[in-house]
Write a sequence for this structure.
């Protein structure tokens, strides 16, 4: 029994069924198929406007292609120091953008504040030929610490970058989980709050392997066809990308999957908060629970054979700093998490 | 009814079943799963030696990663002027290799000869600081004109490049189709004939989306782990890549699929050769048939609603040059081609 | 005594004097100095219009920066197969452009024809996502074979590319030599004939190390400030770049230097044409003379201790093909060539 | 009268004389000349061992080429957050290295400590495919705050990175100024202390435009010939690079030039320390003086028409933080600084 990641489970049965159904017959290649066309319409409905949607195969590719579309090779991209694009993509943003620079900012709970952004921008001299030029800000929604930006927070970040003309990218690998928590519309948390480009995650939320890059400004999407192909992300049997998103978006299946994962996470978080054997490192706002684990709890988890990942404590608030022997553990819930497993986990923590 | 491409059909039923089976339960991410491990063993058996195998999602990525692993950014890669890496990957080899140069060579039937290679090498000055340095030769097997290199031909090409130290890459998007025709072992047509790196195709031969890069020299593979990840080609739910190849390689399923496609192609080629209404542009040696089509035949195909692609005539032998009104048409057979469709095609051509 | 290259001599005395004069006192760095400002005005006068001029240190950098400014990483640049950008820059255009592809064309005397360009464009499918996109044509003036494009020829090339929207770059490493021969204005052979960007050579014509990139369309120059700096081509003591061009352009010094070099070349070419011991490989239209040398002549040159470079015979016209034992030799004249040396060379050839 | 930078003055008279002398006659191009050969021997003597020395044209190119030689595109380079490579090269290290990541560290006086390095390394997971791989540490000598690393400090940094296998690069744009202060040998502060590659500055210390990349491990230099050419940094009239260094290194001219600059700086620093109208932001250890300037002093400097640059206060020690109205001003001394100007500056500060 493990809570390692939402990518250690498979795909949702509906997604698998959609793939099987899409397998029949012949179809136009390279994304000119009926499934992909339908998905484009679904995204327009979801976002309440025309969007440019590009399906790709991995989250790393989605983020790197999105960022490469909005910065020049001498551009700087502001990001949280523990953002996925900084920590977990092996330099893909630098590769796809032909050398742009990620500028890392600190922030509690992996969240950026307008203050931190403004301070960093003051070091990045606009128009100075000697200096990389700040051109994008990227935020993760939900964050790498399981927290969530509200529309007001996104808007405040956008306002902090607007005077300098930066574009705003949202890494939505766990966009569904954030949306379910926020209870707002997809439009409200993206383009209405100032997001220019969104990496819309599928794989962590029930897809087999499918992500989408959503451009709200068509001008940013103009070169994406070439970028995607040149990066080896244009699937020849493109129907299989379309079919996954088609199944996810139909009848809000993607939100139901996220709701389940979030509910499991909330159940764990509330039990821990009540129990007192461990404490929450950050508020549980999506499908991940980060717990500060004393040695005794860790021993019980080990004895129970329960898997989880040790996690960085860098983004802890100062008042929440680790005490002797404590570490942070990450427990990720997915669409497939069995509630009984969550109860066993709660019991193991409580001792 | 169309014969556009072997990527306009779906995946083999066995591959789909394998994906469904692999979907159960939790599994380690990023290619550390049981399926991928099993596939690595299968490749070792197939090639009669230890190999370094890396699974990726598209053929473009496979070729570009393979080539980037064996050349430096100031390197030159010799290729046929109509090779997939030259014509159909939108500059992916240049992107992944940080700027290496593809040097295009002519050749009948999309095949390169040692003479052409030697002549081109004479223009590429070894060790001259002003000049890009020839570091790799890439050949396609089966070629873009549906022809096949014999082991002796591959060996002769290797001998032509050995004095200059070039590595030999084989783009095996249709490797299965070539192998079935050749009747030799996978080892004989690759490393035993001098191939250093192979793009082993899955997608055009029954996979949903799966390709493998096979390194025969482990030194060439040393950086591939980073390259693949940084290119967004490391699948998080890696089991789904492993499962596809596992199903293909088990019980020679991949060869059976290719045998069917090749048989359909041979049936068409023989019928056309006998019939005389059209003629073969190049010998039919794999699963593609290229026909020189006079206007009357084209009209009959159109009337019958039969789809095919117009094709370049650049690689025709001088004696086979097009006459007035003729064009070249490409007809691709796949694992899923229905023999009845081939008969209808034959009838439409014959008139 | 050698005729290896126009870069094996030093700088013109006036250029050296200008450097010495510019050395006094303090000056703003990075090209914001009085010399560079004056040079920008001189270029505007020379080209009879406002231009964006960027001074750099080497011809390779000038060409690579110019090309990178007018193509995207998935772009194709058409060039003669023996162009300096293809043969002598070790992949700099590919590096600076983040991977664009040079497509090599043949042509007698290193010159491209509209026919060759049109034919190549027919293979490069516009708008096809699988294919690199033709975005620039580059020509060398004077060419690598010492020939020259007339304004009408440049215009015809521009017309061949206009329907496809390619930009036209001129590598003018020996621009002065061409201009002196043509007898037209600098405007007539550049923007008035359709050139969008010009590499204006200084080093081969009396500078110590100075080249300029001249943009006729300011939109192409928008990012050049960043590109040049990021490439390490923005000189901190920028006055020393400005002073070189200031001295060259003042009182048409650059044209006088080129006139001398061309006259030396013409003297040699005419003597050889008359003498008959060797023959011209291509018409002598600038400061280089390419001779087809029989063994006996080569022996006499060797005996006389006269240095020259063996040269490629690829761009010979079919009727001028080499006969047994012949090779092509390149003899380059410079601003500093001593007429007496040319006479000794003529004598050695004549025997 | 200004103290903006050591690149706002010209070249040393001896360097100018050497250029004039080198101008005579014909010489082999591209760095195969007698001057460059002599310089290579001089470097060997200076460093008491064989080195691989590559002359280039700008400091940005020297640093970027040096770093690109010791990291892979997915590598991370640790650097002070105010290092020249981070702040002043417009992304050149990222460009030349095909996308490596600069990881910025804080440190008082622009100096890095082993503690800071070790802490940062703990966030950069070695061998983790998801993460960029720490491969180099770069330090500036003298630093951007005018401070200097001792051999012991360099060695301690080397020890901090050795377990992880990072290479050590030293940006020696002001290497001469540091060496003069340290009083040790060039060998002691470089390879004997663990430096693998050195950017040896010429331009800021009396050259017109000349820098050298010195490799102490020949394996790191293997590809540099291609890298330099491809970057447009291989000067055709290479003798003019050689002649500059030849003049600088002969009879320790370079050290004399630095001694003068340092003496001017020390004079200012001591006068300010005694005078009390302003205070030193950091110890004056080379040729730059950074002063914390109250408003009154700034007004006097303005009235006296004395130029200097405002400077970042980020690297101030906590106890030296700016008080109301204070700013940091940078005053740079060069080989050409007139002592009388320093006295006028001192008087203006004192009021």
């Amino acid at each position: 029994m493990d809570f390692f990641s939402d990518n250690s489970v498979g795909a949702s049965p509906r997604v698998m069924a959609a793939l099987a159904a899409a397998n029949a017959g012949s179809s136009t290649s390279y994304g000119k198929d009926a499934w992909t066309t339908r998905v484009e319409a679904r995204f327009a409905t979801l976002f309440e406007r025309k969007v440019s949607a590009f399906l790709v195969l991995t989250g790393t590719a989605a983020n790197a292609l999105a960022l490469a579309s909005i910065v020049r090779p001498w551009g700087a991209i502001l990001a949280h120091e523990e953002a996925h694009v900084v920590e977990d993509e092996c330099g893909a943003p630098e590769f796809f953008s032909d050398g742009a620079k990620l500028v890392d900012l600190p922030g509690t709970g992996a969240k950026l504040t307008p203050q931190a952004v403004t301070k960093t921008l003051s070091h990045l001299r606009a128009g100075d030929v000697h200096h990389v030029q700040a051109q994008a800000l990227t935020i993760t929604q939900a964050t790498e610490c399981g927290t969530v930006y509200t529309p007001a927070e996104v808007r405040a970040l956008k306002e902090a970058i607007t005077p300098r003309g930066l574009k705003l990218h949202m890494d939505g690998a766990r966009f569904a989980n954030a949306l379910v928590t926020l209870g707002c519309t997809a439009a409200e948390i993206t383009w209405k709050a100032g997001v220019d480009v969104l990496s819309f995650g599928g794989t962590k939320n029930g897809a087999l392997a499918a992500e989408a890059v959503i451009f709200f400004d068509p001008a940013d999407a103009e070169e994406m066809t070439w970028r995607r192909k040149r990066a080896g992300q244009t699937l020849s049997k493109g129907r299989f990308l379309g079919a996954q998103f088609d199944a996810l978006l139909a009848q809000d299946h993607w939100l139901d999957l996220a709701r389940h994962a979030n509910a499991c996470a909330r159940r764990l978080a509330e039990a821990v908060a009540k129990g007192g054997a461990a404490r929450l490192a950050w508020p549980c706002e999506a499908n991940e629970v980060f717990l500060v684990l004393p040695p005794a709890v860790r021993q019980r988890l080990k004895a129970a054979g329960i898997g989880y990942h040790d996690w960085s404590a860098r983004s802890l608030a100062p008042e929440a700093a680790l005490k002797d022997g404590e570490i942070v553990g990450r427990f990720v819930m997915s669409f497939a998490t069995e509630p009984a497993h969550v109860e066993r986990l709660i019991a193991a923590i409580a001792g």
